[in-house]
Amino acid sequence: SNTITITGGSLLGGKSRSFEFSLEVLEIIKFISQGNLTYEYKGTSFDKVAPPVTIEVLSPYSVDVKISENNLFLGQDVTYEVEIESKEAVEDLKIKSLKIKYSDMSPESVDDNLTRALNELTWSGTLSPNKKVIFKNRFKPIKTGSFPIILDIDFKVDQESYTFSEENLIHVRIKGLKAS
User: Residue 37 in 3-state DSSP?
Assistant: First the structure.
């Protein structure tokens, strides 16, 4: 918890004094700000508490990852879908880099907008305010075990940079055998 304290001084009857401060918020966050006044009048202490104010700094984007199934039998496919939405009302959302990294899986179906590289799908582009893009892919594991699909995205909005990263494990076993 962070506290700003202003002390000292006295006030003549019928006069008022106001205090103002500003905050520079450096991350996407939700917090409560509340003022508290403690004063003394004719030897008695008083406390006055202002109603709390909730301040929420919203993300300029949302990312939603959907996986059809993360517990598979060898030979089954997994569908991996990424949806990115610009929450900005004015500025474009620039996706400097989107990478979907995978191993020990064969890409069976890759979204036409993605570029294939070795064990990686990539994209970069711009989303207009309040627009979204969806990438739908299908992978087939080539052996048993647990394998990650890792999503890394670098964004930029109005000179501010953001990153998003998520790892999802795909577990593959042979039909008839219990997962360990």
Answer: strand
Beta bridge partners of 104: none
Place of tokens 């004015």: 90
Phi-psi region of 22 (alpha: psi -120 to 50; beta: other; left: phi over 0): beta
| Beta-sheet pairing, 160-173 with 71-73 | parallel
Is residue 11 a contact partner of residue 17, using CB atoms and an 8 Å limit? yes
pLDDT in tens, 96-146: 999 999 999 999 999 999 999 999 999 999 999 999 999 999 999 999 999
The kind and range of the H/E element at 87 are none
User: Is the separation of the CB atoms in 104 and 145 below 8 Å?
Assistant: yes
Decide: 125 and 95 in contact? Cβ < 8 Å: yes
Instruction: State the residue for tokens 């992978």.
Output: 139
Residues 6+ apart with CB under 8 A from 101: 119, 120, 148, 149, 150, 151, 152
In the DSSP assignment, the letter for residue 178 is P
Token pair belonging to 73: 């039998």
Structure tokens at 168: 């999802």
Supply the DSSP symbol for 129: T
